[in-house]
Amino acid sequence: MLSRLALVSAVVFAAGVAMATPAVSVFREVGVETGAPRIVEVPYWHVPLGSLPEPDFGWGMYFDWQRIPEEYRSEAYVRKCLKHMADLGFNTCTFYGDAETTKRHMAAASEVGLLSEQPVLVLGEAPEATDHWCPEIIGYGPDEPRPEDGPAVRAAVKRWNALGKRCAAAVKRESLKAATALDVWIVNARGLNADCERDLRELWMYECRFRGTNYDLHRYWTGLYSFAMHKRHGVKACWTWGYLHDADSMFRIGREGTWRFDVSGRYEHAIAGPDGPIGSVGLDGMAAGIEDFRVLHALDECGGGKGWLDALVARVPSAFWEGTVAGEVPLTRPNMWDLHDTAEPAIDVAAEMRTAVRLLLAEKAGY
Fold first, then answer.
1. Is the predicted pLDDT of residue 32 greater than 80, yes or no?
2. Model confidence over 117-137: pLDDT tens digits?
3. Backbone phi and psi for residue 27, each to the nearest 5 degrees, phi listed first
4. Where does 88-243 have alpha helices with state H?
5. pLDDT class of 288 with cuts at 50, 70, 90
6. CA–CA separation, 240 vs 190, rounded Å?
7. Hey, which residues does 31 pair with through a beta bridge?
8. In angstroms, rounded to a whole number, what is the distance separating the alpha carbons of residues 32 and 29?
């Protein structure tokens, strides 16, 4: 698969970086109003960066296989979804269901390349043993506990720890006191700050106020923003709700018998089609962001552009929505997505990544 760094590399090539390759073309199938596909040729410049060091960081989607529309729900379809995530660069996942279901789906995730050294989350029952290699399994506690839910959180931690597993849960900053027993905090990124850092407790982050409609914001989320939070607060994973959201996360046929295109409803980043999941521009943005993170990590590892990189990280707000339209405008419109669909990152990601690629290529010609 050609690197999505191609989206930012044209200026690098124009600046005279010798490693940029000649123009190439990508052919994509694009839906039009009639429902008939057409082929569009997309020329761009490609900078080959094939040997970047792998960062110790996880990217995962909340993926509840039971939310696959019933007419498509099968083991083969689950496998297609897992492979789709792996192909986009994700390296961990959530697993729902009983122990046998979790065991099967973890095996499928391993076979399609979705599993890595990063821990996985189990929101159900964990298998006692697996027939394949798997990373650390972390159990899930009460989701987004309220301040008064401390006893339920402690009970979940006790249950998972008795099985020899750590326990994690998504938690909002205002409920951190109720979640002190958790081994891993998955803090909502809209409230991320230094209060979320605790000794002996691993820190991850999540966001659930997305749907797959905003390429730039999703790229910022998994890329520059994640890298900055990794450096500033020690965040070790970025989780996003959700891959699919409900039975309406699918292509539908309108009354006239034609494809409907107003299909991105609530929170989903893929929609289910008859031949497999169909990704959104938001997922493409997250894939590009994962590559951005790897570039920034490589630049940091080799010591290139040190002052520039430190200054860039310092400009990224800890609270994710700060500096975006959605973070500054009161939610007064009837459709909540009016803001999130159009929110712009707090930083011009494409411009900064052009600089990052140029600095990296100048520092490490081996890339």
1. no
2. 999 999 999 998 887 888 999
3. -110, 125
4. 99-111, 150-162, 215-220, 226-233
5. very high
6. 13
7. 37
8. 10
Dihedrals φ, ψ of 285, to 5°? -65, -40
Query: Coil, strand or helix: which one is 68?
Result: coil
> What integer pLDDT is reported at residue 49 of this predicted model?
56
Is residue 28 over pLDDT 80? Answer: no
CA distances from 342 to 208, 222, 266, 326 (A): 16, 17, 15, 8
Side chain identity, residue 95 = F
Instruction: Compute CA distances 253 → 76, 250, 261, 262, 292, whole Å.
Output: 23, 10, 9, 11, 37
Under a CB-based contact definition with an 8 Å cutoff, are residues 291 and 8 in contact?
Answer: no
User: Under DSSP, is residue 91 helix (H, G, I), strand (E, B) or coil?
Assistant: coil
CA distance 365 to 49: 10
Sign of the Cα torsion 353, 354, 358, 359 reads negative
pLDDT number for residue 31: 45
Question: How much is the pLDDT for 265?
Answer: 58
R_g (Cα) of the chain, nearest Å: 21
Residue for token pair 């990296």: 360
Separation between Cα atoms, residue 253 and residue 22, nearest integer Å:
42
* Count of C-beta atoms within a 10 Å radius of residue 244: 25
**154-173 pLDDT tens trace:** 999 999 999 999 999 999 88
- Whether the Cβ atoms of residue 354 and residue 12 lie closer than 8 Å to each other: yes
Bridging pattern class, strands 276-279 and 270-273 = antiparallel
What pLDDT, in 10s, does the model give residues 313-349? 999 999 998 887 655 555 455 566 667 788 899 899 9
